[in-house]
Amino acid sequence: MQEVHIDYLNALDIEKLAMTDAEIIAAVEAGLVAQGNGETVIEPRVHLEPNPEFHGHFNVLRGYVAPLDAAGVKIVGDYVDNYLRGLPSEFGILNLFDPRTGMPRAILDATVITDMRTGALTAIGAKHLAREKPRVLGHIGARGTAYWNVRLLDHLYDFEEIRVHSRRPESRDSFAAKLSADLGKPVKAVEDWKSSVVEADIVVEASRLPEPQPLLKTEWIKPGALVVPYGTMSAVELSLTDIMSKIVVDDWGQCKGGKFGSLRAHVETGRLTAQTLHAELGEIAAGRKVGRESEDETILFWHRGLSLSDIALGMAMLKKAQANSIGQKLRFA
């Protein structure tokens, strides 16, 4: 058997890549377009919950992107109490494979990949579904993905006002301070959900609730707004879907099943079905379905997270790393 080596990119290697906002968004959108054109295979994520007392679980995401000639599997742990240990809530590993032979191609730290691709998916959703010139962003949650939501949305829109909220004052204050420094503009930490949401043109709900609780009130949503709820535990009211002109998801296959997700109750009660769903975002990105058609539409975009996004961003990182001699080669066989 011939020698087999695989590329390994750890967190420090990925930091050295200094991926730009534009590079991140372009990579993830390429995966969405491939999905919209029917050039992917995506398996709904599965979960491993070792013990309910640990307050966490593992997500396993699997997919294939034909235009990138890559298959991949990502495993990411999601543990809500990790902040008590001084740890991020999510740790992840992305494995990339040659889809023609099954040979391992690369292993990448997927913690920041998860954060970046989630933020990119939020931003691309806004690109197709938000008003042309949104002025105010309201963001709930301050976990790792939250930073990239705000950063990449602001990259597209350069908001006049950004408000953020998190249940822990120290979390929201430090989050706002970091964003203010990195974006070069004031980011306001607010004390409650309502202050973040009311009159916002884009509302992102990325909360870290231990159990479902309807803290985001439908009556707060501004007509014409884009609402992006993707918390693991539902934080929205059942009535939220009643005011929407369009509902878009990233992948209906994984949105319609499983125990987690912000609109799980809406699926289970029949408020969100294949018939009431407007489109998957990939269909819109590929030009097969329309996105926003008027300033008056109030639109909801629910994303669970795509293996395709992990694979597309991972491949972009791998290509840049190889071009710049970043990372390590590991002997596999």
Automatic annotation (TrEMBL):
This is Ornithine cyclodeaminase. Signal peptide: none annotated. SUPFAM superfamilies: NAD(P)-binding Rossmann-fold domains. PANTHER family: KETIMINE REDUCTASE MU-CRYSTALLIN. Belongs to the ornithine cyclodeaminase/mu-crystallin family. GO terms for cellular component: cytoplasm.
